[in-house]
Amino acid sequence: PPVEYGPIDGYWWEGGRLDKDRLRWQLEELKDKGIAGTWFYARFLGGEPLGSDPGYFSDEWWEFTRFVAEEHRRLGMVNWTSNWTLLGFEQAALRAQREENPSLWGRRLVAYEALAPPSAPEVSLEIDEGDEILDVAAYQLNGETLLHHTRVDRADAVDGRTVRWTVPGVGWLLTVVAARRWDLDYLGSQVGEGWTEVVLGEYERRLPGLLGGDGVSAFGPDEMKLLSGTLAFSGPLLEALRAEWDEDPSRYLIGLFREIGPRTEQVRGTYLGAMTRLLDENFYQAPTRWLHDRGMQHVSLSQLND
Q1: C-alpha separations of 148 from 110, 169, 239, 244, 263 in Å
Q2: Which of 54, 130, 157, 290 could be a cystine partner for 165, CB 3.0 to 4.6 Å?
Q3: Is the pLDDT of residue 241 over 90?
């Protein structure tokens, strides 16, 4: 079939010493058998025993990468590249920059709770150092559900890192929702742009004139694992919720951890929707924009499997 309809085969370099004659022979054999191109898949990124020799991203490895890009162009074959994001190559590079650039740190939501005991007049919570308190309130309980209409703001109960409250009776739960420093700020543009720069920026520096067009024409990362169920948080996220609800969203954040009655699903859906939009705009779209600006495609593994 013509190139635009031909198969693009997965291409692995692991488990042996790279050799230009062998790489050239492999590509010529694929071309001869009707294969339209290759999708390079970097399986081992950190010097594992079965990784390629030379290792991923080394100067020698880049020399072979350039050679293969030129061979694809000579043979008129499609050349796609990738990396295995599950291994955290990009994250590790960005985490190493956090000491000099603390704005790369992300934050996540955490909740503290203390149930008023039947016999004690006071209940208290100790807040971890570094946690930013977003909301302090007390509620009556109905089973496991917070009765949100019974909410009593307790911001005045904060004393340093301790929250103390003299309870009016049994059945009250003191709660604190806070933002804790965590991993990377995937909701902000710096991490999205930095993630893109770690791999794609290096391709641009190492392969000038070989990106886009009849050169390396697409990037398809595999298994990009970021939040893993984490409730990521940022100031812009809180402002997005404020604009949507036209009221202070902090008072409803406890609904992400506890049932709060009829509004529970709305609170969770709105929060996760705003979080997903910021993740898409600032993180996922960063490599897409970079690639499209250079005439390249951004493809997913599911599309490749199709």
Answers
A1: 19, 17, 22, 20, 9
A2: 157
A3: yes
